[in-house]
């Protein structure tokens, strides 16, 4: 299994940040952040105060509009030649859709924010196993259709790609559901153990993955076989883009006393935080002197109370981490276990994997209706 110099990189970045910003103060985050001059977006920015003209901000969130792309209240421009990947496959910018969850690094220019690379990774790609009302199950992952995502056209057995964010209990709240051709399947999530002690993501047992990945968030590619998900490729999945000192992240959070749990990360609860339980929020983060993330600003967009609470999941994740052996190529399954590789699977064979056009042909134009209505992404520019 390949090891990453993440710790050394983190220490270096933390040192550089400490030199220019003297660290980030924990707590005191503002629920009503100031407008950082993003004229024309109709949003208030939640960028940490240290930005104000500095580039290199990690952005993770849902595409809400086009022209440029609107993500987390930021209007981010990109060139027609920008590198866009969907599940590791390079595609034209026109393949982006409202509802895709993107990860990128935005640079601040005189004309506003810009990026040269946009990464899209869907949470699950595979056949629908069950449908109850507006809830689906895809490869053992519970999916709830978010506001504006239509259920029309969904059927058991149909292969779909689901974009969205996970609640603390790991339910995916879908912002976009796209039809794809049957083929390679994908799950992105945190590896835990099920009631039988098997490695699993959601309720989907896994085979062919290293036991040392327990407790880690990964992207897996493979196929269902014998009741389990037989993994053929593994990629490490970062919460925010690497190499940044600040970030604006859309996520579900859960307040737990003095801490806020966000995407498997514990953060200090801001002094003036008013929400309780679970909430959907956009958080401005800065790297502190220890190399960890601190909340600088946040904006709650939806309070859910106890819905989606991740207490049970966090205990399973804790247990999985405590029982995980040191990385050594050990595995669960019938063949050599796969350890985590760098983010992105890279380009596959012609036709791609799980992208807008699956093997053997294209999916219907625009996919299933999502937020903003049916149909395509931005016009070619």
Short description:
With 381 residues, the protein is mainly beta.
Keywords:
mainly beta; 2 helices; globular; 381 residues; DUF5666 domain-containing protein; single chain
Q: How does this structure look, described?
A:
- The chain is mainly beta and 381 residues long.
- Among the domains are: 57-121, Beta Barrel (OB fold (Dihydrolipoamide Acetyltransferase, E2P)); 124-236, no CATH class; 249-323, no CATH class.
- It contains two helices and 22 strands.
- A five-stranded mixed beta barrel has the order 1-2-3-6-5. A five-stranded mixed beta barrel has the order 7-8-9-11-10.
- The radius of gyration is 20 Å and the shape is globular.
For the secondary structure, the number of strands is 22
Radius of gyration using CA atoms only: 20 Å
Secondary-structure element sequence? Answer: HEEEEEEEEEEEEEEEEEEEEEEH
- Give the strand order of the largest sheet, numbering strands 1, 2, ... along the chain: 1-2-3-6-5
Q: Give helix % range.
A: under 10%
Measured between the Cα atoms of the first and last residue, the distance is 42 Å
Q: Give the count of helical stretches.
A: 2
Poorly predicted sequence stretches spanning 5 or more consecutive residues: 1-45, 49-54, 328-336, 345-381
Strand content: 35-45%
Shape: globular
Biggest β-sheet description: 5 strands, mixed, barrel
Q: What assembly state would you assign to the polypeptide chains in this entry?
A: single chain
Mean pLDDT value: 77
**Structural class based on helices, strands and sheet pairing:** mainly beta
